[in-house]
Amino acid sequence: MRLTNDQVMALAPDPGSASNGKKLANTRHWKNLGQSDVALWGECQGSGKDPYQVRVDLATNESSCSCPSRKFPCKHGLGLMLLAISTPAAIPSGEAPDWVQNWLAKRAATKAKQEAKQEAAQSDAPVDEATAAQRAKDQAKRAAQREANVAKGLDRLDLWLTDMIRNGLADVEGKPVSFWEGAAKQLVDSQAGTLANRVRQLATIPRSGVNWPHQLVSELGRLTLLTAAYRRADALDPALRDDVRQLIGWSLGAEEIAARGERVSDDWLILGAFIEEENNLRTQRVWLQGATCHRNALVLQTKPFNTPFDETFVAGDWLTGTLLFWPGAYPLRAKVEHRDATPERASALQGSDSIEGFLGDISRALARQPWLDRLPCVLCHVTPIYQTAGTRWLASDSSGAALPIRKGELWKLLALSGGYPLAIACEWEHGALALLGAEIDGHYYPLGGA
Amino acid sequence: MAASNMDGLVTLALVGTARHRSSADTATHTPIDDLTSTLAAAEPERALLLRAGALAVYRQAGQTAPAQIGAPTPAPSETRPLCSPGAAALLGRLLKEENILLPEALARLNRAGQRLPFDLLPDALNIMQDEHRKLLAPVLGERGRWLSHFHTEWDWVEATLIELAGELPPDAEDIWQEGKLNQRVALLRQARQFAPERARDWVEGVWKQEKADTREKLIDCYEINLSPEDEAFLEAALDDRAQAVRATAIRLLMGISTSAFAARAIARADAVLDYANGKLVARPPKDFPAALARDGLPVNTRENQKGKGPRATWLTVALAQVNPTHWQERFGLSPDALIEAVGEKNEWEEAIRDGWTQAAQAHQATAWMLPLWRWRHAVEANAKHYSHSDYSTGQLMGGVAAEERRRLALDMLRRHPLTADDSSGAQQWNEAVNSVLAPWDDEFSQAYLAGLYAFAGQLTAELLAQGATPVVPWLETLAVAQVALAPSCVGSATRPFDLPPMPEGKLNWQLNYAHRQLGDFTNTMRLRQRLIEELPD
């Protein structure tokens, strides 16, 4: 088990599972424990007659259990991992029993199938000409319908925005959430779902602080700019056109991403992740950095509330594999195409040496894609500062320039630094940093918090 | 001037283009103006929004870093080496859980001359328990001390370091004048030990202007190195406005045998307790002089305690203020003989028993502890209703000399082992075993483990199903045993217990409880085994 206690606890879907898992990290609950290079297993006595069969894939840290719980990982999986950390001697090395081997084989088969499917999608599967022509025709018809639909939606949005400015934003302060929600829903009906989310977000701005009118005008402006760009998409650079269309709601199909996206193989350090909950959906943003290519990547996973994410990413852990980047003017978003376990290795974060340098990177990124809301920020040589007076946290470089840090395990960061510079990884948003982790002497400490 | 460009647009947007008479100037005086003029926008509203959007991106891209206000002095370099990664992982877990094994782990780390890793420092500084803090302070290292200066709730570190030092710090005078309360208290405790004259001067210099809760904390320090020199100050404190200060003054004056207070207490007690014809006779007064309130005696006749009458309460307090060795001298009898002389039919028996119990504890009258403990258990055993031994009974055992406690407990383990079907005297047995000073020595640890495994071997499902409670006393010693067992015996305590399996479909509460408690014990012993391996002595 290469994870730490804290990392396993961070996998728990809720505090109840975490504490139940902790209770199960005791050999008295377990039978037939064992581990190999690729897996960890054991049988846990539950309330039923037959013990639950629990197994963990050591490459991905994903577990499976025969219990009926819909939580993932369930308390048994967590308990087994915690036990492996606290009492490694209790888990002998050996050959996996059939029920573990079958599971591993099934996983490998599913993975192979997925990969084959992707490959099939990439290569032109032979179909007869008539079918191909009919398919293309249907597709074009659907696309044209949707184009018209979206265009109508954007026209209505423009009217709504124009009205708002004509009557003055002072009125907006007292509007109920339904005011914004209505506009968002209209866009959803017009098949412009991503833009709808942007409109929905506006509801949080009024009364959010003294500066809300500035913020609202800025966001409404960026929104108008986006719809203007969409209407002139043909005049845009192809990469930016992809971005603009996605920001409206045209998602790229898996085949398209596979065909046009860039593949990068490397050892990827999982810098950390943030989870946001909205509209009964949970979205996880996972930030990674390649050890050799030094590229930053963002993996997004969205699932309904109470449904586990498809893939497990443990902050501070490594994955060896291939990331497939979405095509775009400033490619950040990626998905994991292939993943293997990584032997333990030292980290060496790559980023800006100064805050001015980082802000220059931001300028260049926005010049390529002006609607980027969040960007990765790795600062290689900054000192965290806590201002007792304003209870403010800052990251300062050697020139004395500083950026505010708004969240993360900041006391731990201060303890690690001791007033000396270190490297930090963050997410940049609205001019402030959300801490993901810090690196000292080749060791990466995840500090994103639970 | 990006802010003011935006201001014009925001003002116009807030008011609304409909209400604005003339066509407003939306120029931003940036390159944005040329750029947005190429965008076709029929209505002024749309032109405004496009311009605002472009300006927002322009400003975002042009963000500059605000200058900071000055970095703190970095932490000094460490003098202690870092512990091993294995020890760090273990310590991290123990700190997070504030685990029962944390004190041993910290003590081992300290003995090894090592320190905690930096990333564990916030968890360590958040520990609340005083005993844990004393063990933590030396292993926080320079970094921990540096970090503690940033958070008011972490100021215990400096205070604890002052208290742990073998001498007064060089800047003692400054700390006393300007330090935080807990630092001043820590300093005063040190001064009471190393410079009592200075300590008295310090307190008397500030006493009048301090608030009641501060006075309470300062006077508490007088228990260190208490001497006749303190009498005048404490006697004056009997007139303090704060009740807690007065109570502490009484408690401390009792401890100065030559004090006027002690003489008054003896005179009061002598007047109400007499010995004649092999019997002790108590005659508490019927009226309580108000003047005695100053010495802590009850004056209000309605002031009953634990269902005792006011006279009994008065008697208990009067006796509690006198060192019980006084009665040995006065009547020429041993503690056992004095208890015998109280007699079972004495109407003041309970009042005398409680008074002597409190007195024995307050004056640390070691010779009285065991006789009083036996006396109280005998009374409890005869009580018609079942009752657990009360708190003060258990406390008495702690006052018995350490060697005597160990002898008694070893004797109970070997000669009167608590078996699965006989739990008589369980409470005494429990108190005796739990009172043996940690860490236990090898001999005692082995005797304990032999008894525990033998007991677990006797447990059967049938026995437990009967619903009697023989399991509990043994299990109540596990919490003490898991930290007190000699390190050399920990390995043999990791062997799981051979308990009967849980019967299917039937809930056996007793058996479930035994499974859980003994299972947790085994688990803790395994953890402790790891701890001993990671941080060997």
Summarize the structure.
The complex is a heterodimer of chains A (450) and B (537). Chain A is built from twelve helices and 15 strands.
What are the key terms here?
heterodimer, A: alpha+beta, OB fold (Dihydrolipoamide Acetyltransferase, E2P), five-stranded antiparallel β-sheet, 15 strands, 39% helix, B: mainly alpha, 5 domains, two-stranded antiparallel ribbon, 30 helices, 2 strands, 59% helix, 1% strand
List the helices and strands and how they pair.
The complex is a heterodimer of chains A (450) and B (537).
Chain A: H1 5-11, H2 15-24, E1 30-35, E2 39-44, E3 52-57, E4 62-65, H3 75-86, H4 98-122, H5 129-167, H6 177-189, H7 193-202, H8 212-231, H9 238-248, H10 254-260, E5 262-278, E6 281-290, E7 296-304, E8 318-325, E9 334-340, H11 355-368, E10 374-387, E11 392-396, E12 402-407, H12 410-417, E13 422-429, E14 432-440, E15 443-446
Helix pairs in contact in A: 1-3, 2-3, 5-6, 5-8, 6-7, 7-8, 8-9
Chain B: H1 2-15, H2 32-37, H3 44-61, H4 85-97, H5 102-111, H6 121-125, H7 130-136, H8 141-148, H9 156-164, H10 172-178, H11 181-194, H12 196-206, H13 212-220, H14 231-237, H15 243-254, H16 260-272, E1 273-276, E2 279-282, H17 310-320, H18 325-331, H19 335-342, H20 349-362, H21 366-382, H22 391-399, H23 402-415, H24 426-434, H25 442-458, H26 461-465, H27 471-476, H28 478-484, H29 487-490, H30 509-534
Antiparallel strand pairs in B: 1-2
